[in-house]
Design a protein that fits this description.
The protein contains five helices and 19 strands. By secondary structure, it is mainly beta. The protein has a 16-stranded antiparallel beta barrel with strand order 1-2-3-4-5-6-7-8-9-11-12-13-16-17-18-19. Strands 14-15 form a two-stranded antiparallel sheet.
């Protein structure tokens, strides 16, 4: 099956549900179908200015995501989720594919192409406060991977344990007949614990943490690379470790505070990478990354909270344009950091140090705005400036970004 055929199948299934008025409610006592989809169109202007060299520009407009899917509720206990489509004007990819079985009101088993940890990582692209998740999301947290998970809720606390493999798109299930090049996520175990405290009538504190151990196998060496808060360009062009790792262990912390129309969110992680004997000799480096951002909703709307998953939720649009309102507008400021310099410092050969020449120190600032005129519609603006200090004695790289997104979802 080709990429176009796969997307056509999803489109046909979704179209049946959309075109038949009674389809969603059909057999309400047994199977309920809910179509879903999203279209994200991005405009990106990036200027990278290595000191003493000419500017490197990226200017593009492209479809970031065009996804269709279905949620099929078989019973009160069993739910099947299916979503995929085109990403970055590219071939068909799977996003979330899951079978969820609720053993009891507080215990859920899930299997499929899933995420397991990270406050911003678990937040859907539909409701992100920024266009992308920054270096922290690029090389610390996992994308959707084949997983078996159990999630347990006790009061305001949620615990998740996941055994993970590779993404469905690397398992010959991407309809293109070839796996993505590079090292794969062979095996991993992730555990996350998160919860919240209600602090007054309008304030809530979220605290969480997770640990993970990954084994990439010995068929290919793994590297750690990031982009400056965008999906455009080549990952690792300005910040990347080179390929050297056969596994890693990580520990991370999550924080969020919500009070009326204001909120603050932050995450930080420490990752120790195991240097493969097939790589240039050296020690096991430690990489760190994180972010912090603050937001203010000008219409006075407060963030919600999903206690079942331990996530910050976007509020409903209370005053849409269709009812004479102005929609909902968020103003945001964000700081990102990542330090890969220990990769080069821990290398004991010239070859290892050369491979890690881009394993530098990253600092970035972003100003953002999110306008939701109607439920299902979003317009996002990000204005960013970042600086990368290379690991080698070379001039810093200054990166400036202007990004816009128009988004529709149902």
């Amino acid at each position: 099956m080709t990429s176009r055929q796969a997307f056509a199948v999803l489109a046909a299934l979704t179209g049946v549900v959309l075109l038949v008025p009674d389809a969603r409610a059909a057999e309400s006592s047994s199977i309920q179908l809910r179509p879903k989809g999203r279209l994200l169109v991005d405009s990106v202007s990036q200027v990278a200015s290595p000191a003493g060299a000419g500017e490197v520009r990226i200017d593009l407009v492209r479809v970031r995501q065009a996804f269709l899917g279905l949620d099929a509720r078989i019973s009160d206990r069993l739910l099947i989720k299916l979503e995929g489509g085109a990403s970055n004007n590219d071939a068909f990819v799977w996003d979330e594919v899951a079978v969820e079985y609720r053993v009891s009101p507080n215990v859920l088993f899930a299997a499929g192409n899933l995420k397991a940890a990270g406050l911003e990582n678990l937040t859907s692209t539909r409701t992100l406060s920024f266009l992308e998740r920054g270096p922290y999301g690029d090389f610390v947290t996992d994308p959707f991977t084949s997983s078996i998970q159990v999630r347990v809720n006790t009061g305001a606390v949620v615990a998740t344990l996941a055994a993970q493999g590779d993404t469905f798109n690397n398992l010959g299930l991407d309809f293109d007949g070839a796996a993505t090049a590079g090292a794969r996520d062979r095996r991993a175990v992730t555990a996350r614990l998160a919860g919240s405290l209600q602090m007054g009538d309008t304030s809530r504190l979220h605290l969480g943490g997770w640990v993970r151990s990954r084994d990439f196998g010995d068929q290919a060496l793994r590297g750690y690379a990031a982009r400056p808060g965008t999906s455009a360009g080549r990952s690792g062009e300005w910040l990347g470790s080179g390929s050297f790792s056969r596994g890693d262990s990580s520990a991370a912390l999550e924080f969020a505070w919500m009070s009326g129309p204001f909120w603050l969110q932050a995450e930080a992680a420490r990752l120790r990478a195991e240097r493969s004997p097939r790589a240039a000799a050296g020690g096991d480096p430690v990489l760190v990354a994180g972010y912090v951002f603050a937001g203010w909703n000008l219409m006075g709307e407060g963030r919600g909270y999903d206690a079942q998953r331990g996530l910050v939720a976007v509020p409903r649009v209370r005053s849409p344009l269709s009812k004479g309102g102005l929609g909902s507008l968020d103003l945001l400021a964000r700081y990102d950091f990542a330090d890969l310099t220990d990769v080069r410092a821990s290398a004991s050969t010239d070859a290892g140090r050369l491979s890690a020449r881009r394993a530098g120190d990253y600092r970035g600032m972003t100003l953002g705005a999110v306008w939701r005129p109607e439920p299902g519609f979003r317009f996002v603006l990000n204005l960013s400036e970042a600086r990368v200090e290379p690991a080698t004695p070379q001039p810093d790289v200054r990166i400036r970004l202007l990004q816009l997104r128009a988004q529709y979802e149902f």
